[in-house]
Amino acid sequence: MASFRMDCVLEWDGILSDPMTLTVNVIPDGPDHRGAGSFAMPTRFIGTAMRSEAPLRAIAHDGSGFDLTVHRFDMTTGIAYFRTLGALPVEDRRSA
Which top-level enzyme class is recorded in the Swiss-Prot or TrEMBL entry (predicted)? Predict the structure, then answer.
């Protein structure tokens, strides 16, 4: 399975995370690519942005990005599991 890494910040309902590297497992879906993965939930999102129905957005340093939806949050480990919404910008970031 292909994956790519993106240095980014996460934005959720107006709240920004600290800079992080997000790894996305790429799932081919016809002409587009979708993805899934996990990340350590930023503390500032817990109890506030997590209640939001707005999508989470991964924003790269160049301003590009994509939306995510958290489908599961493990309260014991603090890990959020996500799926991407829409096509991924993977052409120049894909790795084996």
Answer: oxidoreductase
